[in-house]
Amino acid sequence: MQIPTIKLNNGVTMPQLGLGVYQITDLNQCEQTVLTAINAGYRLIDTAAAYHNETAVGQAIKQTSVAREQLFITSKLWVADANYERAKRAINESLENLQLDYLDLYLMHQAYGDVAGAWRAMSEAYQEGKIRALGVSNFFPDQLKNLELMSNIQPVIDQIEVNPWYQRASDVQAIQRENVAVEAWAPFAEGQHEIFTNETLVQIGQKYHKSVGQVILRWLIQRGIVVLAKSVHQSRIEENSAVFDFELSDDDMQTIATLDKGESQFFDHRDPVTIEQIFGSSLAQLKE
Ligand SMILES: NC(=O)c1ccc[n+]([C@@H]2O[C@H](COP(=O)([O-])OP(=O)(O)OC[C@H]3O[C@@H](n4cnc5c(N)ncnc54)[C@H](OP(=O)(O)O)[C@@H]3O)[C@@H](O)[C@H]2O)c1
Hints:
Layout: E1 5-7, E2 13-15, E3 17-20, H1 27-39, E4 44-46, H2 54-63, E5 72-77, H3 84-98, E6 105-108, H4 115-127, E7 134-137, H5 141-150, E8 157-161, H6 169-177, E9 181-185, H7 199-208, H8 212-222, E10 226-229, H9 234-241, H10 250-257, H11 272-284
Parallel strand pairs: 3-4, 3-10, 4-5, 5-6, 6-7, 7-8, 8-9, 9-10
Antiparallel strand pairs: 1-2
Helix pairs in contact: 1-2, 2-3, 3-4, 7-8
């Protein structure tokens, strides 16, 4: 099945659904998973320096018969490299790891560190043709606005957590209003709160002969969101991409809206204690 594309604000098109490879730490498995996804019709692959599997993604790209220009490869700048000098180096390292001349999309992974300096390095790589589109991840609308106001290069996308438990209606609207695309990470909330057996989602799926995973991805797509689904299983990889042949009714969209728990299923990016615990040691490297 052909996966539809969306047009980003710089004119580049990207697939509306892709494979994420977070937590696929076994490099052979990562390589095989990427190949399986490409064979199933996926073209968007989402990795990051912090996932430590860019080399495996690169190996898969090298092996596939699908032409490089048909693929859409995303990587991300980690917090420990979030300043001008380090970002310059990190971009080249990601390209080397992936064995690529250019990235289709490169994201600032978190809104921490020397955001302005890192964005300047990313902008230079964009202007040099090493990156086709620049974006951010985990930026709240105010942080996105700040970046837009201080730079001549507007981010094309903001990759944020969005799933039935954390629906973020106002954040999604605010980001999309800026003509910046929203890309959902952890669309399945990594299975938390028994999402795959949730009765409401199961019942909606039965109406369309679709699985819960397919209902969730379709619900996101109908909100105009780009989705990343991670699976290492061929059957699920195929299942997750079969979401362009049905449409959820307005009633079903609204029923899913009632499932919102209104908070991140992972951690609060706005809590200083959490920021220090999770990003403190990475940020400390910027002082070296
Ligand atoms: N920017 C960021 O900060 C950030 C953070 C997290 C994730 N991400 C990106 O977003 C991608 C997706 O998020 P995620 O990997 O955290 O979580 P996710 O996609 O919400 O959930 C993945 C989990 O769901 C299972 N699964 C997948 N499809 C299924 C299906 N059809 N039926 C039943 N179970 C299914 C997978 O198991 P199996 O693999 O065993 O099938 C895996 O355990 C990541 O891979 C990464 O690229 C970005």
